[in-house]
Amino acid sequence: MTEQGVVAVIPAKDEAQRLGATLSALARVPQVSAVIVVDDGSRDRTAVIAEQTGVLVCRHTRNQGKAAAMQTGAQAAGERHPGAALLFVDADLADSAAGLGVLCDPVLAGEADMTIAVLPPQDRAGGGFGFVVRPARDGIRELTGWEAAQPLSGMRCLTRDAFDAAMPLARGWGVEVGLTIDVLRSGGRVLEVPCALRHRVTGRGWRAQVHRARQYRDVRRALGARRRLGS
Ligand SMILES: Nc1nc2c(ncn2[C@@H]2O[C@H](COP(=O)(O)OP(=O)(O)O)[C@@H](O)[C@H]2O)c(=O)[nH]1
Ligand SMILES: [Mg+2]
Fold first, then answer.
1. How many Å apart are CA 34 and CA 218, to the nearest integer?
2. CATH 3.90.550.10 fits 6-229, yes or no
3. How far is the CA of 229 from the centre of ligand 2 (A)?
4. What spacing in Å lies between the alpha carbon of 66 and ligand 1's midpoint?
5. pTM, entire model
6. Cis peptide bond N-terminal to 168, omega within 30
7. In terms of Cα–Cα distance, which of 62, 190, 207, 208 is closest to 128?
8. Residue 218 CB less than 6 A away from ligand 1
9. Can you tell me the distance from the alpha carbon of 99 to that of 118, in angstroms, rounded to the nearest whole number?
10. Bridge partner residues of 26 (DSSP)
11. Range list of β-strands (E), 97-189
């Protein structure tokens, strides 16, 4: 395993249906030298599927949220691959995860401290998504002057130094907005990179609305905490 590559960290909750395809696609990305799945208290076979592919699996016995899972994965990565860049990957990308290489290149080349994937339009628009995207984008602009096309995008590659500068992470679903602001405030160069990724579409049912409401709450909290810290 070479340390020239990046360590992929996949936070996963109840992703048994799509994780297998995501892992096989990731195995075809040459820039990825190791993969860590963090099973965040799943009630399905997520952990078993990850273990069967031979990647490192960290388990939370209880659900702790996306940010906590990312932190657990990053810590395991730091212990086994000190100094390696990290690639955060959502578990629901399935085959399209094979397109993540372009996200790693600018970081490995030293041209960016963090890259963020910009996804093409998805098959169906998610219900009320703009309701969280807009405050996230406005908050990042207000606090850093930086304009994000997709402020909530979860696929990110960053250097170890950039990650460490952003610790502790904002909780739950505020983690992406927090990372962007903290990396920029620490002087990091952040770059959005178009990536041909597809993920599960969040519909308009009550579950989706609950997801969006939680996302909204966590984004507001992440922004509030960073406003208090000042710029
Ligand atoms: N650790 C953790 N990850 C979660 C949780 N809920 C969802 N995820 C993961 O976070 C990623 C994004 O979730 P997803 O439902 O696709 O959200 P969306 O893309 O914003 O609609 C996926 O990899 C999920 O498995 C959770 O409670 N804890
Ligand atoms: Mg998704």
1. 30
2. yes
3. 30
4. 6
5. 0.95
6. yes
7. 208
8. no
9. 12
10. none
11. 114-118, 156-158
CA of 77 to the centre of ligand 2 (A): 23
Tell the residue nearest (CA) to atom 12 of ligand 1.
Answer: 90
> Ligand 1 pocket, 12 CB below 6 A?
yes
| CA dist., res. 19 & res. 93, Å (int) | 8
Sort strands 86-88 and 156-158 into parallel, antiparallel or unpaired: antiparallel
- The pLDDT tens digits along the chain (231 residues) read 345 899 999 999 999 999 999 999 999 999 999 999 999 999 999 999 999 999 999 999 999 999 999 999 999 999 999 999 999 999 999 999 999 999 999 999 999 999 999 999 887 655 556 889 999 999 999 999 999 999 999 999 999 999 999 999 999 999 999 999 999 999 999 999 999 999 988 777 888 889 999 999 999 999 999 999 875
